[in-house]
Amino acid sequence: MESEPIRFELQIDVPGTANRKGRKTKLAVRFSRVNLRTPYRFDNRDPFPVYAVYATEIDCPEGETPLSWMLLTTEVVEDVLMASTILRWYSYRWRVEDYHQIFKSGCQSERYRLAAVGMKTLLGFLSVIAVELLQVTYLHRTQPEAPAIAILNSVQLEVLKAKASKKLPTILTVAWAVEAVAYLGGYLEHRRKTPIGIQVLWRGWLKLHDLCEGWQLARNT
How much is the pLDDT for 64? Predict the structure, then answer.
């Protein structure tokens, strides 16, 4: 694929991890129809036709590992639009990985031991919370100054404001809301320079749900 001409360049956001800083980067993209060799154990020796999308990072920052993606697909890739779509689909893997980390580490889905029916119900409940936390962490990372109402409903906002131990900021942002939820989960004031962990957010989110239920019950009595 390296002998193929560069068809276009694409800018993407690379999210940060424990071992990598987040950055905007540019990819040089090639694509072409290719044939895969059939394994020897199969009687049909005809090659298997697929499309390859090959993307390599341009001007990778010093000290970072450059991105290099070789994507094989049965989708027909004959123009820039479809090649961009394949790369966009693949980039979602970072969000899928975040979801599974939240689901397994935050929600601790693997520690429960229930019968099949009960486990199915529990996993359905946990998956909804995992999606909510995924949205919270994503907006906290990408739009921390967005209004808090983007991740909280009106009742949740009222509860967090009532629980606040210090003066509220003029504008309630996503960053403020995530910190407030983290404090419910045991996040300590003196560790503000430490990134908020997903388990702390998980505990805070569950406690917020309980407080909201109590808040609404009190209003209805």
Answer: 87
